[in-house]
Amino acid sequence: MEQRTGHISPADLARQRDYTEQIAAVLRERDVPPLAFVDTYGCQQNEADSEHLRGMLREMGYGFTDEEAEADLILINTCAIREHAEHRVLGNVGALVHTKRAKPSQIICLCGCMMQQQQVAQKIRSSFHHVDMVFGTHALWRFPELLWRVMSRRTRVFELTDEPGSIAEGLPVARMDRVKAWVSVMYGCNNFCSYCIVPYVRGRERSREPEQILREVRELVESGYKDITLLGQNVNSYGRGLDRPIDFSDLLREIDRIPGKYRIRFMTSHPKDASPRLFETMAACSHVAPHIHLPFQSGNDRVLRAMNRGYTRAGYLALVEAARANIPDLVLTSDVIVGFPGETTPEFEDTLSLIEEVRFDALFTFIYSPRPGTVAARLPDPMTRAEKQVNFDRLVAVQNDISAEKHRAYLGKTVEVLVDGLSTDPRNNLNARTPGGRLVHLSGPASLVGTFIPVRITGAATWALTGELAAE
After folding, report:
1. 249 to each of 232, 314, 351, 421, how far by Cα in Å?
2. In this model, does residue 155 exceed pLDDT 50?
3. How far apart are CA 302 and CA 305, in angstroms?
4. Calculated CA dihedral for residues 217, 65, 128, 166, nearest 10 degrees
5. Domains in the chain, start-ordered, CATH in brackets?
6. DSSP state of 240
7. Is the pLDDT of residue 472 over 80?
8. In this predicted model, what pLDDT tens digit does every residue of 69-96 receive, in sequence order?
9. d(Cα 197, Cα 203) in Å, to the nearest integer?
10. Residue 45, beta-bridge partner list
11. Is residue 22 predicted with pLDDT exceeding 80?
């Protein structure tokens, strides 16, 4: 499944800039500058994609609004990972018929993973006639061209290229934060976990050239960004298909050499490709945060085989042991699926016992959601939804107790945190993060946003900590 990484040519990218300028010329003739509303569902990769789409819109001359009704253009970046997300998108898109009726010139665009599925795009085409444009993940870089077709031809546009995927470097970006930033290091996935739609909608794995990543991170650090997250469906397989021999550990070490006061995070790591070398690198790099998100999904070997995860329970536990041996202050988080087709309650008990043995800092927990087109969607699934819910509630209760206990261990400690934003809570107007990514609420001047400060932890709950400024 390994392939050479394809890149969009400079000539093709230049053509998109020409379309951008044509749109900008048209919009400059308007009496009032146009506004765009961009809504994003799903993972951090979708957030990063939306930042590029906002960058393109800004170069076209659009400002931004948080109100659909006042927008001249609505762009919804969709997620296909779970059924609930799809239902939310379709419900919200259906409601936009009212904004379009009030403002007939409004352009409504749908993109992202959900739109890469042919059956979904066909549903939009036949049932949501107020939608003007639909494009999938592989056509993101062609957004200016597609929008120009809508504007100049007054026609609906559906662009659903079915291809392994390529990389487009140099796309404009409009970041929504001044402290935290996303940097995609690779795209796509080759793992084909039996429950997951991602390889079908995001294409095969393809890694960016390390020089491009280093340039982007260096620019972010020089611009004052303090918390930079490297993104990939499976960052541990970074480098495959590149001409230069490099893996993710090598990339982390090269990034770590960039001078400055900042933290590097990354997600997501697949256990089958994680190794002690990664943990040794994390420990050796001063800028890499002591946090790893390592999804285990199930604690039962039969279920893991049915999921096509490529590792065993014992193998996962060995990884955890190696990670903690190298990084004593490690914060470990994970994903788990409850109710995978065919999972029995005794098999679920294996998941519960793994959680109690590992004692994660936090878990992202999901009841299995069938995705049409995946292998798991065709498997027998005799357990009822109500039975799955009972198991899910048990798991959440166990993990909540562990998370609360983990947080209580911070009480009285002084921790260097990064103040990364303002809160709406008048009692604690600042939000901050520990090196391991734990949320801390505290009070202080807004000028502290974007700075590293010592904080004494005074309160602990299941999901967050409370602190106060500590004397330096």
Report:
1. 14, 24, 29, 30
2. yes
3. 5
4. -10
5. 10-159 (3.40.50.12160), 177-289 (3.30.750.210), 295-408 (3.30.750.200), 414-469 (2.40.50.140)
6. T
7. no
8. 999 999 999 998 888 888 889 999 999 9
9. 10
10. none
11. yes
Q: Which residue has the tokens 């990664």?
A: 278
The helix (run of H) or strand (run of E) holding residue 85 is helix 83-95
Cis peptide bond N-terminal to 268, omega within 30: yes
Of 230, 270, 271, 233, nearest to 250 (Cα)?
Answer: 230
Q: Which residue has the tokens 């979904």?
A: 120
Centroid of chain to Cα 88: 18
Residues contacting residue 10 through CB under 8 Å, at least 6 positions apart: none
Distance (Å, whole) CA 65 – CA 59 = 16
* The token pair that represents 368 in the structure block: 């299995």
- pLDDT of 84-139, one tens digit each? 888 889 999 999 999 999 999 999 999 999 999 888 989 999 999 999 999 999 89
Cα 436 to Cα 362: distance, rounded to the nearest angstrom: 11
> pLDDT tens digits, residue range 203-252?
889 999 999 999 999 999 999 999 999 999 999 999 988 988 999 999 99
This prediction has a pTM of 0.93
Write the pLDDT tens digit of every residue in 418-447: 999 999 888 899 999 999 999 999 999 999
Alpha-carbon gap, residue 66 to 69, rounded angstroms: 9
Angle, helices 44-60/10-28, rounded to nearest 10 degrees = 60
Beta strands at 362-367 and 331-338: parallel, antiparallel or unpaired: parallel
Which helix (H) or strand (E) segment is 112 a member of?
A: strand 107-112
Q: Are the CB atoms for 48 and 182 separated by under 8 Å?
A: yes
**What does DSSP assign to residue 323?**
H
Mean of all residue pLDDT scores within the chain: 94
Residue 298 to residues 337, 365, 443, Cα–Cα distance (Å): 7, 11, 40
Q: Beta strand 186-187 with 331-338: parallel, antiparallel or unpaired?
A: unpaired
Length of the chain: 472
Tokens matching residue 254? 């090269």
Tokens of residue 204, six digits: 């095969």
Cβ contact 350:304 at 8 Å: no
* Residue 3 pLDDT > 70: no
Q: HSE-up of 134 (CA within 13 Å, CB side)?
A: 23
- Which pLDDT score, from 0 to 100, does residue 82 have? 83
